[in-house]
TrEMBL record:
Coiled coil: none annotated. Transmembrane segments: none annotated. Belongs to the ETF beta-subunit/FixA family. It holds the Pfam family ETF. Gene3D superfamilies: HUPs. It comes from Saezia sanguinis. This is Electron transfer flavoprotein subunit beta. GO terms for biological process: carboxylic acid catabolic process. SUPFAM superfamilies: Adenine nucleotide alpha hydrolases-like.
Amino acid sequence: MKILVPVKRVVDYNIKVRVKSDGSGMDIANVKMSMNPFDEIAIEEAVRLKEKGGSVTEIVAVSCGVAQSQETLRTALAIGADRAILVETAEELQPLAVAKLLKALVDKEQPGLVIMGKQAIDDDANQTGQMLAALADCAQATFASKVELAADAVTVTREVDGGLETDTLTLPAVITTDLRLNEPRYVTLPNIMKAKKKQLDVVKPEDLGVDIAPRLKTLKVAEPAARKAGVVVPDVATLVEKLKNEAKVI
Ligand code: AMP
């Protein structure tokens, strides 16, 4: 069975991004870019499932975006993906467009499982996995914290508000990863070298017959309001007095 893992190139999670002065978006020129952390977890999980020696035969990493997303795909190959596909475009890609591109690749590659991040940390959309499952008309389990794969089904433990929920899905299925699913391995130098030789195909959205035109328009992006500095109080009595008489919340 093949596992497809979509990986997005995003601003590195350590970078503090700034809003452009005209409020039209974030200024991401010349900032460090990395693989979306939830996608790293997705690749790690796919590699672990393959290493268990079950029915997984191949892991295909996919990225949609600019040519530099090849770097992200090479990281996925170094973690252990076997092959990669870049759907290259310089156009803005919204979740629906990505889901349609992934659906076209699902039709072509026929994976038994798609494992992807629950959300991309740049736009925090949390939409692509759900949209892909709907478009591909297959089962989905979001926010996975445990994945157990059998021959024709997958059992997923999900993090929900009240605790944990366990679902068994028939394959093919889409799973989105939560933070506690696993801790991705460090990428070693020999594996980075090996990854350079692995197959990476580049296709265009037109080759897949997908209309990627944006459907949503961003009207304005603004910084959050600045917070007032806090004060350190010497004891609980002073805290209670301030809450009562200054903040007037008790
Ligand atoms: P989002 O719905 O944008 O929060 O993204 C959820 C997940 O969809 C990500 O964690 C990725 O696995 C996948 N994804 C989103 N955008 C892309 C992209 N441009 N290329 C590949 N995968 C993507």
